[in-house]
Amino acid sequence: METFRAFRSMVRDSLGHITHGSKVYHLWMFLLTVVMLIGMYAYYIQLEQGLSATGMTDRVSWGLYISNFTFLVGVAAAAVMLVMPTYVLHDIDFKQAVLIGEGLAVAALIMCLAFIVADLGGPAVAWHLIPFIGVFNFPNSMLAWDVIVLNGYLFINITIPLYILFRHYQGKEAKHNIYVPGAILSVLWAVAIHLVTAFLYQGLQARPFWNNALLGPRFLASAFAAGPALIILVLAAIRKFSEFKIPDKTIRKIAIIVTVAAQINLIMLVSELFKEFYAPTHHSESAIYLYFGLEGKNALMPWIWTAIPLNVLATVLLTVHKFRSNFKILYFACFILFVAIWIEKGFGLIVPGFIPGPYGKIAEYTPTWVEIWVTLGIWALGAFVFTMLAKTAIGIELGKLRYRKKETIQSETH
User: Fold this and answer.
1) Which domain, by its residues, includes 62?
2) Of 251, 262, 236, 268, which Cα lies nearest the Cα of 336?
3) Could you tell me if 153 and 76 are in contact, meaning their C-beta atoms sit under 8 angstroms apart?
4) Is omega for the bond preceding 309 within 30 degrees of 0, making it cis?
5) Which of 103, 158, 163, 199 is 20 to 30 A removed from 358 (C-alpha atoms)?
6) Mind telling me which residue stretches traverse the membrane in this protein (predicted)?
7) Neighbours of 224 (CB within 10 A)
8) What is the distance between the alpha carbons of residues 276 and 105, in angstroms, rounded to a whole number?
9) What's the predicted TM-score (pTM) here?
10) Phi-psi bin for 174: left (phi > 0), alpha (psi -120 to 50), beta?
11) How many domains does the chain have?
């Protein structure tokens, strides 16, 4: 009973805490709310008109929604790069950032699921994704595996931080024998969510652009580059706008993770380019369309030729210790790396897989305003959720939110 009372007190205190803040905080939440409302209106249009309101067709059936879903799976998986050194290797330098990283993973997974529902056309179709109720087709369908690993990873990333924060809210230390097994499981699960997503594409033999053995490892490399890069940017914002102290050493260690992952990702990119263009076949047409255009169609060329220079520049800046040690340059490098990988794993991966079509026809894809605003609305939702989670976690870690047993009991009796 006491535990339930403490948990209810934590929920009440957290709700009060997230509704109070500085003018900058309220302006930020207001802007996110406005973008979410516009996104909801765009989604209403999509529900009214169906997927015909989007730029997707029977030729290119995955577009902006699945592009963002694929990228965000990597952002969610990146939390493992903080969980493993903190909970498994007991590196105290990561301790201040790990709860922020797990909050980011929760927000990313919520956005992943939202993009899937948006791509399905409407929430009424999502019942097919529910085991034992819909047409789940487990274990034959890789989509079924994807549903399991995504929801499982979301559950893990909610329960472990919730337990740790709840103990801290009560003024107690979290018990290692309770949360460490879950942390170890989350490390394995993080790898699984990205590999299963890669296998989903690799298993489509009719799409040679995805039918690549290097796709899974490159998914992981790009995830462990873009995800921690975003974490560094988020930690920089937290250092600037809150009292929560993130040591320089923590950011520098995360920067090393980003650097190594970015270097591996770049090597894999070169390997893929060699495979596609050294001895091109008709299976290379998707890559040719992406990088050089095909039959006068080149809608994706500006995107990919923006991503590659940004990727190279970011990797060079991160590799040079002098630049990486300068936080302004580090933040700039992390930002352009994040944008570059978003393009590569978004438009640069998903759309070319459908071009040319089975009969050689080239049908280019351009997202409509409906898709763009639904996408922005979902990103705003993720930022909104993360802001609330981070503000609550910071409040508990700073000791601003604590359980007061006597005061709680007195307030309930009155």
Assistant:
1) 2-406
2) 262
3) yes
4) no
5) 199
6) 24-44, 64-83, 104-130, 142-166, 178-199, 219-238, 250-270, 300-320, 329-352, 372-396
7) 24
8) 33
9) 0.92
10) beta
11) 1
